[in-house]
Amino acid sequence: MSTTAIKGNPRPKSSRTITWAHQCHLPKLPIPPLEDTCHRYLTALTGLQDEGEHVNTVKAVEAFLRGDGPRVQEMLLEYSKDKSRCVRVS
Fold first, then answer.
1. In this structure, what is the dihedral angle of CA atoms 70, 48, 40, 30, given to the nearest 10 degrees?
2. What is the pTM assigned to this prediction?
3. Coil/strand/helix, residue 10
């Protein structure tokens, strides 16, 4: 098997190198609103829980939105301000 790729460039040592090669050039993704995240979470669980489990999960999510959720979301937003988009792969 050849050790060169298209245009004569050597192949990367692993597929991980290819996967993350341009991460630093991509724009930083926004952190979605907490309510949207909770709604998507509940939607994802539909069909995976029976009715009773889902009712309990909805109650827990509602309590989170009324309680610690907004504070945790603010902490996440603050934490992300000085983080780069770049994923470092060793």
1. 90
2. 0.67
3. strand
